[in-house]
């Protein structure tokens, strides 16, 4: 069977070739009934646009690049899943680009990416969303970009969530269970999320009438290994905590690992909770109480926002998603 051509789609839908092209490129000012008719013809004929011709006609590469430097594979897989889904809907290709955190290496990698692949836009994930050097460089290059959870929302296109409120809700949950010695494992210092979640932790303590105890705030790096190290520091205290709120699920998994190693019962002796609701939170035993951050939805929203910006130049600002407290088996009444 011969491959369908754009001319065949135009004939089947009783429209011009230019109209078919506008529909496939998701351009504005196409009547909904016309768009629907064209898409029905595309489906019926199993038409697939020729990528090279489409690129030449629209002066676009139909590639976008996702820049990331994040120690949590679980978090990134959620984001990538949402981005891929949106790319499929928009008929775009995704380039995955791990990036350095040091300024010189980061800017060099971006320059190579732009020269090699000519992406129509970039998606930035934390902590790259907060790199002043990168943001200034992208402005110089005049490349559209969208950000996921940027620390400074001014002038950003993308998506975010109220992380301080989510962290506060988690601490309030622990206080409601009778916990008074509540520790927090802070995330990587380069991530805006680390500060937001620390702020929410402290607000939750204040709401419960509890004072901040400096020895219960321990640094981490959003990795399993840093969670183990932080848990060791906390559980070796003369007066250890009865609950540990880790700033992500990977670090919470590290706490649970060390607790099992020391025969500390969860949650009978120690309650543990995390943040993000990544797959590991449901694979642990006991299952992890955590904050559901809809990373796949955030990936989808950021991608659609970026491609809308690419097509129209319209600045849509940051969209907000909501969090959910997922209470599971790893938290219980204070001993």
Characterise this structure:
It contains 13 helices and 12 strands. The strands form 3 sheets. A 6-stranded parallel β-sheet has the order 2-1-3-4-5-11, covered by helices on one side. The chain has a 4-stranded parallel β-sheet with strand order 7-6-8-9, with helices on both faces. Helix 1 packs across helix 2 and helix 8 packs parallel to helix 9.
What is shown here, in short?
The protein has 13 helices and twelve strands. With 335 residues, the protein is an alpha/beta fold.
CATH superfamily of the largest domain: Response regulator
How would you classify the helix and strand content by structural class? alpha/beta
Give the total of domains: 3
Mean pLDDT value: 90
Span between termini: 71 Å
Please write the string of helix (H) and strand (E) elements: HHHHEHEHEHEEHEHEHEHEHEHEE
Strand content: 5-15%
Strand order of the largest sheet: 2-1-3-4-5-11
Shape: elongated
By CATH reckoning, the class of the largest domain would read Alpha Beta
CATH architecture label name of the largest domain:
3-Layer(aba) Sandwich
Main β-sheet description? 6 strands, parallel
Q: What's the CATH topology name of the largest domain?
A: Rossmann fold
Enumerate the spans where pLDDT stays under 50 for 5 or more consecutive residues.
Answer: 52-57
Helicity, as a percent range: 40-55%
Q: Specify the number of helices.
A: 13
